[in-house]
Write the structure tokens for this entry.
Amino acid sequence: MRYDIAIAGAGIGGLTAGALLAAQGHKVTVFDRFAAPRPVGSGLVIQPVGQQVLSEIGAFDAAAARGNFIRRMYGHEIEGGRSVLDVLYDHDPDGPNRGLAIHRATLFDAILDAAHAAGVTLAHSHEITGRQGQHLAFANGTRDGPFDLIIDAAGASSPLSPITATPLPYGAIWGTVPWPQGTTLPIDELRQSYRRADRMIGVLPIGQLPGQPDPQAAVFWSLPRDSHTAWRAQPLEVWKTEAITLWPEVAPFLEGITDHDQMTMARYAHGTLRKPFDDGLAIIGDAAHKASPQLGQGANMALLDASALARAVAQHPLDEALPAYASARRWHVRIYQAMSWAFTPQYQSDSRWLPILRDRILFPVSQTWPASRVLTRLVRGDMIPPMASLTPRD
């Protein structure tokens, strides 16, 4: 059966769901509030489970060509020099598992091209304000529909999602800078440095931006969620001096940051919908579950949600597909949300004792078998099957 499907939000999850469902023969319209679809944010890591979804829509090769593969995530405590995070994507040096570090704009272009190729229709300048049955209502007073299925992929501030979330005390400022020549940091690793849990600075090599041949890096700095105004009020050199004093290797990355506006504040919250669907409505991505980015799973969760929903629609009548989608994703989402909730305060908080627990007990344990393998699977996104009972049709 061919369905008429509306998707709220032209982000990673919405466009991926659109590409998958349009490829099945459904009529898919993606509504977005911007005059032209565009990404928000800086660098991220697409884990192996997310890379599989990119392959499903034909976007992996384009993303991989401009992104940058990483084999390790490593962090050290600044004051004592101790290692506090060390995760290999594959314990076999020649193994196939790697993270794909990439700028959101580059990833977005690859997924947008895949959506266009699949036949998705994009409706720009449509700011959604709510849902009236199977119709979507817009800020200009108009509405569209009815649709057989509405998919909420409008992100953390979606007007369609009933999710409630607890704000997290720390966020981060992000910026994109050229990868400097002569740096001693490896280009196939995410590197982070910590002072206890109240300071964190990181560098992620993210490959190329659209239309630019030179490799780039995402630089991030942990910041209390209510401190951004104070950070902007002080001279930029005050912050840069503090960062370089804590981690001298970051100095060449900060040379190109000359204006506060080059660093964007990201704030986080934690919450999960118990039921990510309603009659004629499916909710995916950040509209269904919010968490900190500590495990690097936000975009991957959106990709997995989109793939699971498309598989459920292919395998079941529509009234059965939505609960099948929710059931398939339930335990994977719950486990990663729980892990994010547990890990985040160890790396972003004002606690004095959690960093000691992290450095003196948890990290040494994480480097021993079988904990090291479990941590690798956790970061790769395949600690448990990400879609439970849903499998591709033969």
User: Anything to note?
Assistant: The domain at 4-166+269-380 is CATH 3.50.50.60 (FAD/NAD(P)-binding domain). Residues 12 and 259 are 29 Å apart (CA to CA). DSSP finds eleven helices and 22 strands in the chain. The mean pLDDT is 93.
